[in-house]
Write a structure and sequence with these properties.
Elements lengths: L18 H35 L5 H5 L7 E4 L5 E5 L14 H11 L11 H9 L3 E2 L8 E2 L6
Antiparallel strand pairs: 1-2, 3-4
């Protein structure tokens, strides 16, 4: 009769590269490559953040904002005879601005400014889902969508 005794299959030697060894190696190098790309991307974003922010003022300096203004020169009798300025700015407090002017700025930027808490989530969500450039039926040239900056 024939010997029906089953002999166990030999266990794969880890020293010999087999099919499973190559797949594990491929997965390992793919993960290492993805981690390296992620680290490079994060480093590039951090570098861009610091490069773009190096010229920005500190938050605490915004509380004590001192814009450059016009220096007026007067004669002995009180007549204005000249002025010096780098930028001709005349500071006017918000309380002295006409309400119609304030409403005009708000209407130009965000017509629903007084209806929300400061950020309208619906347009922000819409802009994150749609491409930035689109063409309308009335427009021949593409225009860029944007959000309010008030």
């Amino acid at each position: 009769m024939t010997d029906t005794k089953k002999t166990p299959k030999p266990i794969a030697d880890p020293e010999q590269p087999g099919k499973s060894h190559w797949s594990i190696l491929l997965i390992k190098w793919t993960a290492i490559s993805m981690a390296a790309v992620f680290i490079l991307f994060a480093g590039a974003m951090a570098g861009l953040f610091f490069y773009m922010g190096k010229d920005l003022p500190r938050i605490n300096t915004l509380e004590d904002y001192q814009p450059s203004t016009v220096t007026n020169i007067f004669s002995d009798d009180g007549r204005k005879i000249g002025e010096f300025y780098k930028e001709r700015r005349i500071v006017i407090p918000l309380s002295e601005m006409p309400e119609q002017l304030v409403n005009a700025f708000i209407a130009a930027e965000d017509s629903r400014f007084r209806e929300h808490a400061g950020i309208r989530n619906a347009p922000m969500n819409e802009k994150s889902r749609k491409p930035y450039w689109h063409t309308g039926l009335k427009n021949v040239f593409p225009r860029m969508k944007s959000c309010s900056c008030i």
